[in-house]
Write a structure and sequence with these properties.
Blueprint (H helix, E strand, L loop, with lengths): L2 H6 L13 H25 L5 H8 L1 H6 L9 H22 L12 H9 L2 H23 L8 H45 L4 E5 L5 E6 L7 H7 L1 H4 L5 H12 L4 E5 L9 E8 L8 E8 L1 H51 L7 H31 L7 E5 H19 L2 E5 L6 E5 H17 L6 E9 L2 E8 L6 H4 L12 H4 L6 H11 L3 E7 L3 E8 L25
Parallel strand pairs: 7-9
Antiparallel strand pairs: 1-2, 1-5, 3-4, 4-5, 6-8, 9-10, 10-12, 11-12
């Protein structure tokens, strides 16, 4: 079936009256036209009926012939026009034959008969009005002196024809009613079959949860019969009922609502329910229409994802605890190695051969590098385990950055890299974790020097922008590819070629980002491959001094990082 064609059909020139038996209706009109024509000819030839009565009978032929036009064009307006023609013909026949006292008195009731044949309450009512009009027309003619002749045979035949036409009209109207009823029942049956074939269960509910109607296939463990007996609320597991009632309240307010609940008869399954308000004419209390689907599969998938997430978090927490514990265990003997190698380097217990002295220097340098790595791992594990606590101190940020520049300057000079700082003349007082800020500056400078070739420059800028401390480290190094920028900042993530990755562990920038976020700030990277990189850290840690004004008013400083 084409819905578009069905919708457009009543607007076409050949539209048909719905539910009408058109061939039978046309045959009824044709039969009447033939009967009226034969009556006119027979009355004239056999009884010598002439004059007004003859023409009155012929007038009744006209609507019968006009009714055949319904085969070409049928519709409500066409039928009402035809019924008006029946009324006019009856009025003409009554006027020419003396009205209800004349030989054609039976024809006065033909408009009502035609109304029955054409179908519809309005047409029957209009036909009754047309009968009254024809009777009044006959009465008016009688009042004007037009008296019908005494023709009892013609009067009997006209009455018999009218009665026969009425009987056929009633039968035709009955058939039309049966056809309409059959069409309505067929449409209802199709709708019911469509509803019953749904993959889910459609329910019509009262606001109390009582089920009024159910269509479609119910989900497992939610049979329909108990729903009619106990209602939807009773079918849900008790802990899920408040959620179900809340969804019903939202739907009654006109909102789209949904809820997932466990059926009382099968707690290992889940039912997904979608509700919407249903406003029906004739019902003061609003109703609800709901669709129920089996949500067990989705529930199992969500439960599996939640379990996997919890297991992953547990593994991650275990890894962080392991790294933290191992870092402590490794630092203890490593500190002894560094201490004894430092004693040997200083030759506190006497001289040693130059070859052994070189070995000691290598041991001390490698141990220092390993200690830095262990410290980084320890910091990362503490941050991931949420065990790192900021120790806020008030200090001048310029001093920390200057100390970091001094630490990397020797390495930079050995590589032929120029390191410079752009620091403000006024103190930059901040309240932050001193060790974290020092680590931020040192990691950024070490990375910049590490990945800048000989002849390049590294510039560090410190500036107070409102409540923010802004540290920018820019270099003219190898740069970072755009696809690598998005990865940097996560632990053990590195960029560049293998030779470049061998120069670090991938913890430097991740610690910078973590320390910045612990202070409520952020880290951003702007880089162009082959030209250089600029890393910016903004921390809301700058101390804003109170400024006294006349009259005792003062400006209150902005809150510090950590809410202190």
């Amino acid at each position: 079936m084409n819905p578009a064609a069905d919708t457009a059909a009543p607007e076409t020139p050949t539209a048909r009256e719905p539910g009408g038996d058109l061939p039978a209706l046309a045959a009824w009109h044709a039969g009447w036209a033939v009967a009226a024509a034969l009556l006119a000819l027979g009355a004239r030839w056999l009884d010598g009926v002439e004059g007004p009565v003859f023409y009155g009978v012929l007038a009744m032929v006209v609507p019968g012939v006009a009714g055949l036009a319904l085969l070409q064009r049928d519709g409500g307006a066409e039928r009402m026009t035809l019924l008006g023609l029946w009324g006019l013909a009856a009025a003409v026949a009554a006027s020419l034959s003396g009205g209800l006292t004349g030989p054609l008195a039976g024809f006065v009731f033909l408009p009502l008969t035609a109304g029955l044949a054409l179908g519809g309450v309005r047409r029957v009512q209009f036909g009754a009005l047309a009968v009254a009009f024809a009777a009044l027309a006959g009465l008016a003619a009688a009042g004007l002196g037009v008296a019908g002749p005494h023709l009892p045979v013609l009067a009997a035949i006209s009455a018999a024809l009218t009665a026969g036409a009425a009987a056929l009209a009633v039968r035709l109207s009955w058939r039309q009613g049966e056809a309409r009823l059959a069409a309505a029942e067929g449409a209802a049956a199709r709708v019911e079959r469509l509803l019953a074939a749904q993959p889910g269960l459609t329910l019509v509910l009262e606001r109390s949860g009582r089920v009024l109607a159910a269509y479609g296939a119910p989900p497992p463990a939610l049979p329909v019969d108990p729903l009619f007996e106990l209602g939807l609320i009773a079918a849900a597991h008790a802990p899920d009922r408040p959620r179900l009632l809340a969804a019903i309240d939202r739907a009654l307010q006109g909102q789209d609502a949904s809820a997932t609940f466990a059926p009382r008869m099968a707690l290992d399954r889940r039912v997904q329910l979608i509700l919407r308000r249903l406003d029906e004419p004739g019902h003061e209390a609003p109703r609800l229409i709901a669709q129920a689907f089996d949500g067990t599969g989705q529930y199992v998938r969500e439960l599996g994802l939640e379990t996997a997430r919890a297991e992953a978090e547990a593994r991650e927490a275990g890894k962080s605890r392991f790294l933290a514990n191992m870092s402590h265990e490794l630092r203890t003997p490593l500190n002894a190695v560094l201490g004894f190698s430092d004693i040997m380097r200083q030759r506190l217990f006497g001289p040693m051969p130059d070859r052994y002295a070189a070995y000691v220097d290598n041991i001390h340098e490698a141990g220092g590098h390993l200690l830095e790595l262990i410290n980084d791992v320890l910091d990362v594990s503490k941050i991931e385990a949420e065990r790192y606590v900021l120790t806020l101190e008030r200090f001048d940020a310029r001093e920390l950055v200057s100390a970091a520049i001094a630490l990397v300057r020797v390495t930079a000079e050995d590589k032929g890299v120029s390191v410079s700082g752009v620091l403000p003349a006024e103190p930059v007082d901040v309240s932050a974790d001193k060790r974290a800020v020092r680590q931020i500056a040192l990691n950024l400078l070490s990375n910049a020097v590490k990945f800048t070739p000989a002849g390049g420059t590294v510039t560090v800028t410190v500036e107070a922008v409102g409540p923010y401390l802004e540290i920018v480290v820019a270099d003219t190094g190898v740069g970072i590819a755009p696809e690598d920028v998005r990865r940097l900042g996560r632990p053990f993530e590195q960029a560049g070629a293998i030779e470049q990755r061998r120069q670090g562990t991938g913890l430097g920038l991740s610690l910078v980002r973590a320390f910045a976020e612990l202070h409520g700030g952020r880290m951003s990277i702007d880089s162009t491959l082959g030209e250089g990189t600029a890393v910016t850290v903004r921390l809301p840690v700058v101390q804003v001094a109170r400024v006294a004004h006349e009259g005792g008013a003062q400006i209150i400083p902005l809150p510090l990082a950590g809410g202190k």
